[in-house]
Amino acid sequence: MQPYVHRQVSPLIAVVCGLVSVVLLVAGLWCGQVAIGVVAFVLFAGIGLAFSSLSTRVDSRGVSWAFTFGAPAGSVPVDAVADVQLTRTNFWEGWGIHWTIWHGWLWNVAGYGAVAIRKKAGGTVTLGTDDPQGLYGALRAAGLTATPQG
Protein backbone atom coordinates (compact mmCIF):
# COMPACT_ATOMS: atom_id res chain seq x y z
CA MET A 1 0.00 0.00 0.00
CA GLN A 2 1.27 3.44 -0.92
CA PRO A 3 1.14 5.65 2.22
CA TYR A 4 -1.27 8.56 2.19
CA VAL A 5 0.40 11.75 3.44
CA HIS A 6 -1.41 15.07 3.54
CA ARG A 7 -0.69 18.42 5.17
CA GLN A 8 -3.40 21.01 5.66
CA VAL A 9 -2.19 24.55 6.30
CA SER A 10 -4.29 27.28 7.90
CA PRO A 11 -2.95 30.73 7.14
CA LEU A 12 -5.79 32.20 9.25
CA ILE A 13 -4.38 30.78 12.51
CA ALA A 14 -0.89 32.03 11.68
CA VAL A 15 -2.15 35.49 10.69
CA VAL A 16 -4.38 35.93 13.75
CA CYS A 17 -1.66 34.84 16.17
CA GLY A 18 0.85 36.97 14.27
CA LEU A 19 -1.36 40.05 14.57
CA VAL A 20 -1.97 39.42 18.27
CA SER A 21 1.77 39.01 18.82
CA VAL A 22 2.53 42.31 17.04
CA VAL A 23 -0.15 44.13 19.07
CA LEU A 24 1.32 42.72 22.30
CA LEU A 25 4.82 43.70 21.24
CA VAL A 26 3.74 47.25 20.43
CA ALA A 27 1.75 47.49 23.67
CA GLY A 28 4.77 46.30 25.64
CA LEU A 29 7.03 48.84 23.93
CA TRP A 30 4.47 51.62 24.40
CA CYS A 31 4.15 50.84 28.13
CA GLY A 32 7.89 50.59 28.58
CA GLN A 33 7.71 46.83 29.20
CA VAL A 34 10.02 45.73 26.40
CA ALA A 35 10.80 42.29 27.87
CA ILE A 36 7.13 41.46 28.39
CA GLY A 37 6.29 42.65 24.87
CA VAL A 38 9.05 40.55 23.33
CA VAL A 39 8.10 37.43 25.34
CA ALA A 40 4.42 37.85 24.39
CA PHE A 41 5.41 38.36 20.74
CA VAL A 42 7.53 35.19 20.65
CA LEU A 43 4.91 33.16 22.55
CA PHE A 44 1.96 34.07 20.33
CA ALA A 45 3.95 33.88 17.10
CA GLY A 46 5.21 30.43 18.15
CA ILE A 47 1.71 29.22 19.00
CA GLY A 48 0.42 30.48 15.65
CA LEU A 49 3.16 28.69 13.77
CA ALA A 50 2.92 25.49 15.84
CA PHE A 51 -0.83 25.08 15.29
CA SER A 52 -1.11 26.38 11.72
CA SER A 53 -0.76 23.01 9.97
CA LEU A 54 -1.93 19.45 10.57
CA SER A 55 -0.30 16.50 8.83
CA THR A 56 -2.03 13.14 8.49
CA ARG A 57 -0.50 9.85 7.41
CA VAL A 58 -2.14 6.51 6.68
CA ASP A 59 -0.09 3.38 6.02
CA SER A 60 -0.36 -0.35 6.67
CA ARG A 61 0.25 0.23 10.41
CA GLY A 62 -2.57 2.73 10.94
CA VAL A 63 -3.25 6.44 10.94
CA SER A 64 -1.14 9.13 12.57
CA TRP A 65 -1.34 12.90 12.74
CA ALA A 66 0.72 15.80 14.06
CA PHE A 67 0.79 19.56 14.14
CA THR A 68 3.54 21.65 12.52
CA PHE A 69 6.54 20.65 14.64
CA GLY A 70 5.50 17.01 15.15
CA ALA A 71 3.89 17.60 18.54
CA PRO A 72 1.25 17.39 19.74
CA ALA A 73 0.56 14.24 17.78
CA GLY A 74 -1.49 11.07 17.90
CA SER A 75 -2.02 7.76 16.21
CA VAL A 76 -4.38 4.80 16.03
CA PRO A 77 -3.08 1.40 14.89
CA VAL A 78 -5.09 -0.48 12.26
CA ASP A 79 -6.12 -3.22 14.68
CA ALA A 80 -7.57 -0.66 17.13
CA VAL A 81 -10.02 0.86 14.61
CA ALA A 82 -13.64 -0.24 14.72
CA ASP A 83 -15.00 2.08 12.04
CA VAL A 84 -14.30 5.19 9.98
CA GLN A 85 -16.85 7.65 8.71
CA LEU A 86 -16.92 10.85 6.67
CA THR A 87 -18.33 13.70 8.73
CA ARG A 88 -18.45 17.47 9.04
CA THR A 89 -17.63 19.53 12.08
CA ASN A 90 -19.53 22.70 12.85
CA PHE A 91 -18.71 26.30 13.69
CA TRP A 92 -19.23 25.75 17.43
CA GLU A 93 -16.62 23.00 17.57
CA GLY A 94 -13.93 25.37 16.35
CA TRP A 95 -10.33 24.45 15.61
CA GLY A 96 -7.46 23.05 17.61
CA ILE A 97 -7.39 19.96 19.81
CA HIS A 98 -10.32 19.41 22.14
CA TRP A 99 -13.11 17.02 23.05
CA THR A 100 -16.56 17.64 21.58
CA ILE A 101 -19.85 15.94 22.35
CA TRP A 102 -20.46 15.39 18.63
CA HIS A 103 -17.09 14.09 17.44
CA GLY A 104 -15.06 12.97 20.44
CA TRP A 105 -11.46 14.21 20.28
CA LEU A 106 -11.23 16.71 17.42
CA TRP A 107 -7.95 17.71 15.76
CA ASN A 108 -8.54 20.48 13.24
CA VAL A 109 -6.78 23.56 11.83
CA ALA A 110 -9.38 24.88 9.37
CA GLY A 111 -12.62 24.10 7.60
CA TYR A 112 -15.34 21.62 8.44
CA GLY A 113 -14.52 18.48 6.43
CA ALA A 114 -13.40 15.58 8.62
CA VAL A 115 -13.13 11.84 9.11
CA ALA A 116 -14.25 10.26 12.38
CA ILE A 117 -12.32 7.21 13.58
CA ARG A 118 -14.17 5.10 16.13
CA LYS A 119 -11.88 2.88 18.21
CA LYS A 120 -12.65 -0.68 19.29
CA ALA A 121 -11.78 0.16 22.89
CA GLY A 122 -14.24 3.06 22.80
CA GLY A 123 -13.89 6.71 21.98
CA THR A 124 -13.67 8.61 18.75
CA VAL A 125 -10.96 10.70 17.16
CA THR A 126 -12.01 13.10 14.43
CA LEU A 127 -9.39 14.49 12.07
CA GLY A 128 -10.24 17.69 10.25
CA THR A 129 -8.92 17.90 6.71
CA ASP A 130 -9.37 19.77 3.46
CA ASP A 131 -9.21 16.35 1.74
CA PRO A 132 -11.83 14.26 3.57
CA GLN A 133 -12.47 11.95 0.59
CA GLY A 134 -8.74 11.26 0.19
CA LEU A 135 -8.24 10.49 3.89
CA TYR A 136 -11.36 8.32 3.96
CA GLY A 137 -10.23 6.42 0.85
CA ALA A 138 -6.77 5.87 2.34
CA LEU A 139 -8.28 4.52 5.56
CA ARG A 140 -10.43 2.11 3.54
CA ALA A 141 -7.40 1.05 1.46
CA ALA A 142 -5.54 0.31 4.69
CA GLY A 143 -8.20 -2.30 5.46
CA LEU A 144 -10.26 -0.35 7.96
CA THR A 145 -13.99 -0.88 8.23
CA ALA A 146 -15.85 2.03 6.69
CA THR A 147 -19.43 3.19 6.84
CA PRO A 148 -21.09 5.58 4.42
CA GLN A 149 -21.58 9.21 5.34
CA GLY A 150 -24.59 9.62 7.55
Q: If you had to describe this structure to a student in words, what would you say it looks like?
A:
The chain has helices at 11-30, 34-50, 132-141, and strands at 4-9, 53-59, 62-67, 73-77, 81-88, 96-100, 104-108, 113-119, 124-128, 146-147. The longest helix has 20 residues, at 11-30. The protein has a single domain (1-150), classed as Pleckstrin-homology domain (PH domain)/Phosphotyrosine-binding domain (PTB) (PH-domain like), CATH 2.30.29.30. The chain has 3 helices and 10 strands, in the order E-H-H-E-E-E-E-E-E-E-E-H-E. A 6-stranded mixed beta sheet has the order 6-7-9-8-5-10, with helices on one face. The two termini are 27 Å apart. Helices cover 31% and strands 37% of the residues. By secondary structure, the chain is an alpha+beta fold. The model has no long low-confidence stretch (mean pLDDT 86).
Number of domains: 1
Structural class: alpha+beta
Largest sheet: spatial strand order = 6-7-9-8-5-10
Q: Any low-confidence stretches, pLDDT <50, length ≥5?
A: none
Main β sheet profile = 6 strands, mixed
Task: Indicate the CATH architecture.
Answer: Roll
